[in-house]
From TrEMBL:
The keyword Transferase applies. GO terms for molecular function: acyltransferase activity, acyl groups converted into alkyl on transfer. This is Citrate synthase. SUPFAM superfamilies: Citrate synthase. Belongs to the citrate synthase family. GO terms for biological process: carbohydrate metabolic process; tricarboxylic acid cycle. InterPro entries: Citrate_synth-like_lrg_a-sub, Citrate_synth-like_sm_a-sub, Citrate_synthase, Citrate_synthase_AS, Citrate_synthase_sf.
Length: 440
């Protein structure tokens, strides 16, 4: 079958010619006005980026290369084991715009397994991290260290022509995606080891007969087929959420200075580690567990509502609810909730997830301050992980990050294919705002 690189090499020239035509025809099109409030307000609503691989609709949720999640999930190829789609298929789709055949996805899976090696000194660096160093910090640290073997950085330094950059960038992206399960599993094993036990040391390696998720699960120490399938689903659906969110945008802006994929993705992970973004999945499970401790297993909706109101009154946010762009229930929440209802219907935490869904949107909608009262991707994911024994909440964002590599590296690779220039929006001072709009 086609390798991903062959298919990309066929697609790239056609797509570049399409983009040239689009720019000639519509280059002067106006994408909207920017107000002073938008500049102070986190740039909400300002269209200022091209991100080829996904688009977020406020009502319908994410479309990945024009496919909505509910439409896409049944169509993505399954591997030799399990019944959930392989994230490798999602990677193929994001990069090429085409749903791969099963053979193509399996070929990519085998290629990633072959590339899944990490320099031993980086393993040693991770083994020397204190157990208490946050797993996201360790992930960012290790990804930065992998920059040592960047093919793009080396090619750039040797002066290769600009229109070949993407080829080296592509190599780095696949290498990095292939290394992530090994890095992330080592972090998991190290942070969860018993007090006084030695770090992982040598002996953690990718099994070429397993897929990307199966390898990740096995290296973390999980053995069940159901866990593998849950991980496949998790890694498939967390991959991308268009270009303006903190993690994707960070990857994009850092890479626009021609920093290689390792440096760009490490920066992206630092953004994902913020509590208003990826860290919310950790915060969300902690919130649900604490609520259960206080209310017990038979709480009424009225009790849940009183608990939620008290949290909001104390000035905290309800993790897992709200979104900067979405205005309806996140389809990524829905598919995780459906999985949970099928596989862990009696989990007491799942019951609380359901009760929160009945209570929180109504409470948040009161007063009209919160623009989106509905659940986002993080509202249910922790309950799944916890159910299968992955209880270390401070690790959850690492899983989000491993999945996010598929989307942000695809989007960023396409930015390099298109030769987008270094990013440099204009900023103003408050004095300048007054000078522009104020009285003499
Ligand atoms: N609980 C309580 N208050 C909330 C809220 C929530 N879940 N969501 C929004 N609000 C508040 C905001 O804090 C803000 O209050 P102030 O004006 O007092 O600062 C007000 O409502 C308006 O916010 P908004 O315009 O609706 O939302 P933003 O675009 O500013 O922020 C987000 C979006 C996601 C940061 C916010 O909804 C939030 O903090 N949610 C909880 C954290 C979370 O789940 N994050 C994960 C998002 C998905 C992801 O990136 O992984």
């Amino acid at each position: 079958p086609n390798t991903l690189h062959q298919r990309m090499s066929e697609i790239v020239p056609n797509r570049l010619s399409d983009i040239r035509i689009i720019r000639t025809k519509y280059g002067k099109g106006n994408l909207g006005n920017v107000t002073v409030d938008m500049a102070y307000g986190g740039m909400r609503g300002i269209v200022g980026l091209i991100w080829e691989v996904s688009l977020l609709d406020p009502e319908k949720g994410i479309t990945l290369r024009t496919h909505s999640l509910p439409e896409l999930l049944p169509r993505l190829p399954r591997g030799r084991r399990g019944s959930e789609p392989m994230p490798e298929g999602m990677l193929w789709l994001l990069l090429t715009g085409e749903v791969p055949t099963k053979e193509e996805a399996l070929g990519l899976s085998a290629e990633l397994a072959k590339r899944g090696v990490v320099e031993p000194w980086i393993e040693d660096v991770l083994d020397q991290c204190p157990k208490t160093l946050h797993p996201m910090t360790q992930l960012s640290y290790a990804v930065n260290a992998c920059q040592h073997s960047s093919k793009f950085a080396k090619a750039y330094a040797s002066g290769v022509p600009k229109d070949t950059y993407w080829q080296y960038y592509f190599e780095d992206c696949l290498d990095l995606i292939a290394k992530l399960p090994l890095i992330a599993a080592r972090i998991y094993r190290n942070v969860t080891r018993a007090e006084g036990a030695p770090p992982v040391g040598r002996g953690l390696s990718v099994d070429v007969s397993l897929d990307w998720s199966g390898n990740f699960a096995r290296m973390m120490g999980f053995e069940s087929d159901e866990f593998d399938d849950m991980l496949r689903l998790f890694l498939t659906i967390h991959c991308d959420h268009e270009g303006g969110n903190v993690s994707a945008h960070t990857c994009h802006v850092v890479s626009s200075a021609l920093a290689d994929p390792y440096l760009s993705f490490a920066a992206c992970m630092n953004g994902l580690a913020g509590p208003l973004h990826g860290l919310a999945n950790q915060e969300c499970l902690l919130f649900i567990v604490k609520m259960r401790e206080e209310l017990g297993d038979n709480a009424s909706n009225d009790q849940v509502e009183a608990y939620v109101r008290a949290i909001i009154k104390s000035g905290q946010v309800i993790p897992g609810y709200g979104h900067a762009v979405l205005r309806k229930t996140d389809p990524r929440y829905t598919c995780q909730k459906e999985w949970a209802e099928m596989h862990l219907p009696d989990d007491p935490l799942l019951k609380l997830v359901g009760q929160l869904f009945e209570v929180v949107p109504r409470v948040l909608a009161e007063g009209g301050k919160v623009k989106n009262p509905w659940p986002n991707v993080d509202a249910a994911s922790g309950v799944l992980l916890n159910h299968y024994g992955l209880k270390e909440t401070n690790y959850y964002t690492v899983l989000f990050g491993v999945s996010r590599a598929l989307g942000v590296l695809s989007g960023t690779l396409w930015a390099r294919i298109c030769g987008l220039p270094i990013e440099r929006p204009k900023s103003l001072t408050s004095e300048e705002v007054v000078r522009l709009f104020g009285p003499e």
